[in-house]
Design a protein that fits this description.
- With 268 residues, the protein is mainly alpha-helical.
- Among the domains are: 69-171, no CATH class; 221-268, no CATH class.
- It has nine helices and four strands, in the order E-E-H-E-E-H-H-H-H-H-H-H-H.
- It has a two-stranded antiparallel ribbon with strand order 1-2. A two-stranded parallel ribbon has the order 3-4.
- A hairpin with an 8-residue loop joins strand 1 (10-16) and strand 2.
- Helix 2 runs antiparallel to helix 5 (151-166) and helix 7 packs across helix 8.
- The two termini are 39 Å apart.
- Residues 1-20 have low confidence and may be disordered.
């Protein structure tokens, strides 16, 4: 994004946290442009699902299946509802109906929160798929009736354009309904950016990406990030950075670290 005269840049945040896939990792990457070549190179060799928000630069990446985000779809209907006069918002308008379809899907997911991967997959086939079929028929009907550039028109178009990606979550119980987990990892970076305007060079931006990767990955693994960084600063000067085994012991996986660091939210 280009902001305040700063160089155009792309920040990619990936989070893998599904059961059976190893420890969760949050990884930030800095690039000076938003070229589609950057995510292609960054994800080179990766095979599997990629949960994104519909950004076109992620399209056509080899060996990747894109998973859509229902939080983004829901938000567009919520925005369409909010532009209506107050007296109309509680009526059964098309904007409210679209929002309620999304809400039904999220309600189903809350009910499957503690299910096993197999139970979640089966539950989605039984409960979510009929809602999706009904919603798609409704969207196709609405597409010929709404003003394309209106808030409602944009909400309907987004869902139809993203539909093949929005339904991918049905394929695997590991997949989530939205990419809010990734969004939450990005939020501290966004809210804090005014505090590090000094990072106005590519080198500084890359250093910042590394620091945020460490902190957010520590948080995803239930670590106290303050104590984890303190531990790194104490240990790193005393080991050789080309010693792969020694460096591996410093990674933010709980089973390799002292107990106090694993107590999230405590400093002692």
């Amino acid at each position: 994004m280009s902001r305040g005269g700063q160089p155009d840049r792309t920040r990619i945040c990936g989070c893998t946290a599904a059961a059976g896939m190893g420890p969760p990792i949050v990884l930030f990457d800095y690039q000076e442009t938003r070229s589609r070549e950057h995510p292609r190179r960054f994800l080179g060799g990766f095979k599997g699902y990629l949960h994104v928000d519909g950004y076109s630069r992620y399209h056509d990446i080899e060996n990747v299946t894109l998973v859509g985000c229902w939080a983004h779809a829901r938000r567009k209907f919520d925005e369409a509802l909010k532009v209506l006069p107050t007296a109309e918002r509680k009526k059964p308008t098309a904007a409210r109906m679209g929002l309620e379809y999304c809400n039904r899907l999220f309600k189903i997911e809350r009910g499957l929160k503690d299910a096993t991967l197999e139970e979640r997959h089966a539950g989605r086939q039984r409960l979510s798929r009929p809602v999706l079929d009904e919603f798609l028929a409704w969207l196709q009907e609405q597409s010929g009736q709404v003003v394309p550039k209106s808030a409602l028109g944009k909400a309907v178009s987004y869902c139809l354009n993203q539909w093949t990606k929005l339904v991918v979550f049905l394929e695997d119980g590991n997949l989530e309904l939205d990419n809010n987990r990734s969004e939450r990892s990005i939020k501290p970076f966004v809210t804090g950016r005014k505090n590090f305007l000094f990072a106005n060079t590519p080198r500084g931006a890359r250093a910042n990406a590394i620091a945020y990767s460490l902190v957010e990955t520590a948080k995803e693994n239930g670590l106290n990030p303050y104590l984890y960084l303190e531990y790194l600063f104490e240990r790193l000067p005393n080991i050789r950075t080309d010693d792969r085994a020694a460096m591996d012991e410093l990674l933010p996986w709980p089973d390799r670290l002292p107990e106090p660091i694993r107590r999230r939210g405590k400093k002692g």
